[in-house]
Sequence to fold (303 residues):
Amino acid sequence: MKIMHTNIVRFAALAVLCFTSCNRNAFRYDASGVFEATEIIVSAEGTGKIEELNLTEGDVPAKGQYVGYIDTTQLYLKKLQLEATAQALLTRRVDIPVQIAAAKEQIAKAESDKRRIDNLFASDAATQKQVDDAASLLTVLRNNLAALQNQLSVSVNGINQESRAIELQIAQIDDQLAKNRIINPLEGTVLNKYSEAKEMATVGKPLYKIADTKHLFLRAYVIAPQLAEVKVGQSATVYIHISGNDPKTYQGAVAWVSDKAEFTPKTIQTQDERQNLVYAVKIKVENIDGLIKIGMYGDVDFN
Fold:
């Protein structure tokens, strides 16, 4: 019986030692989590048939790279129509100096006649009526010139406004034509492709999803007592494990700390239950060698 008791004690001690060793190994890092990336869903900005969409899942297009276009035939024809209308307006625009040249010549002649009659009147060779008629004629001609200038100005301003409106419509179509060219917004990896060439697209229809895989985030969770040691901007060491080899390390920095717990506490709780409240943190990591993949598990030590 004594020997059996001794064996039981030895077995219990061995179990406690093994559990302690395994527990220490399981929690040798400050926190663990999953890698995330900034993902963007690229959507169509025009309506029409997708004529080209030259990418597949796994491609790594550069920022600003042309990857396809949506049919723009109708937009282009409308632009040609507007340009023709703009040319027609130009033919209706009058040259004000040319139009008023004749009226100015009449005024110049009337002014000359008035001076001559005024001189004759001073020499008692002309009557007061002739002087009054000359002055009246000059006034009428000047008023006619002012009215003509105003009429021509209104006409030209109206044509200029129409031309400006057409220019804005052409600029609008140019913008639509540009948006129908599918330009990749950022350098990254194509995660999903939602549309194919020859399918119809409408404004807002998803075309593909792309993620920036060079600048990743490790979303990890810490318990409340650790919050005092985690601050935005502080450095951290991130670890990934590949095929049982020694963990590969990366330098990172805390980018975000949640101000709310992930789990709602109960009204009545024990001290142990409070430890179940965890807070999310994000650590930004440069994926310099491309080994880190989205969804991969990682560990972190806060420096």
